[in-house]
């Protein structure tokens, strides 16, 4: 029940709507309970007329009109209630998505390192559906079931305490069987949810990497993997279904048996004259109505268990510790020409050895600094620390003399633009991608940025030009075009620090030349940090930092490092030798 209290607490902004809905339901339930009594009065008039001839036809008409009127009012209230319910449900769904989405933005990067995006989306969807279903069921069934049960018990007790007692013996039996059934069902549902989350995550990964899957001819193995996982889910569902229907038969059989016993007593008492025909009709109708609160209570128990199972992961995400705050609307860079300094910085990922060890360096303003080293040396981790995706486990990082711990994530990142190796683009238009992160951008500003990025000409060839949609992660663009769109975005952002993460590593020679020309314009009057394996992209750097095994093992100007023995000169020689062999092969040297 712990998650149920969380659900009620989470829905606090909507409590006033639930109270209104509950009040309307109480009125509707009261009208539904009055109708059988009016019918009793109608039957009484008919019986009087048959036995004595003293029935009142006018009273009969008024009773019929009253019963019709209560039905109409009940219908009106039901329509109003459903409209308020739809209104509340839509806003509740919006609220739950925003709550989850906002939480996601404040979680540490390590959470996303260990999760598959498709799995996150699946648990979000299931959590919202289960929460909405539970809140709707609570409002629509708990209140009327409670009111209906109490009222019927009072009326039956007035006419026959024995009938009332036997009728309500069904409640503990029915609820207990439902509780056992739903408890076992929920335990299995949690396992089923885990399988489905992993399955949806894998499907999304396959769709995102569909070219890889097709090129390696692994469609069959991927299909078999999903089929195997879904078979496991189906087996669990089969057990759930068998259990549910077995328990459902048991509780319904018990209910029907109890109803038969009560009816025998009712019909006998009517036969010997203890009850009138009208009283018998009244009790029969209430006996029929007593099924509704029983079914409602069973339904509520099922919804409670479904909500607990479905919302488990949702609440686990909400319970995670937030390490960031949601950004405010606009934060201007705090420093015009920022510098960055590392002092004895150490870092390790969770359950791993130290990735960075006693890193110390200074990055002056408007300097171009390159990070060089073998794969796994710690270059990307260092960039992640500069962006405050992670916090160091030791040492200090400062920006223009201010400790990173005193600066918010938003303040730090307001100084930094990135051009990624992976093409970080959205499936929307070219305009949206270039203007991303800035408000009030005009078409002329976007066009100017595209021109500076050497991207304007190819963009203007598209049928919709700036409004051209580029597909998921820019799939409709070539590698060089994607990079130049990213560069245009960075130009428009106009931030004092620029990070280039292998920005030209996957490009052909012509595209690299166009991208490099665009980067030269972008790099002016900025602190530029470059990760690059192609040394042609860093030949004009002011300083090189050489990393190996999480340490800075050398630093200096490119020319100085090339002349002395070390990792930089070793890597440089490999590239020179590779180029030399190519020249010799085609007799160009």
Automatic annotation (TrEMBL):
The keyword Lipoprotein does not apply. Residues 340-574 form the ABC transporter domain. Pfam families: ABC_membrane, ABC_tran. SMART domains: AAA. PANTHER family: ATP-BINDING CASSETTE SUB-FAMILY B, ATP-BINDING CASSETTE SUB-FAMILY B MEMBER 6. One of its GO terms (cellular component) is plasma membrane. It is a multi-pass membrane protein. The chain crosses the membrane at residues 17-39, 59-77, 134-156, 162-182, 242-265. This is Iron ABC transporter ATP-binding protein. It comes from Candidatus Roizmanbacteria bacterium CG_4_10_14_0_2_um_filter_39_13. Gene3D superfamilies: ABC transporter type 1, transmembrane domain, P-loop containing nucleotide triphosphate hydrolases. GO terms for molecular function: ABC-type transporter activity; ATP binding; ATP hydrolysis activity. The keyword Transmembrane applies. It is found in: Cell membrane. Keywords: ATP-binding, Membrane, Nucleotide-binding, Transmembrane, Transmembrane helix. CDD domains: ABC_6TM_exporters. Residues 19-306 form the ABC transmembrane type-1 domain.
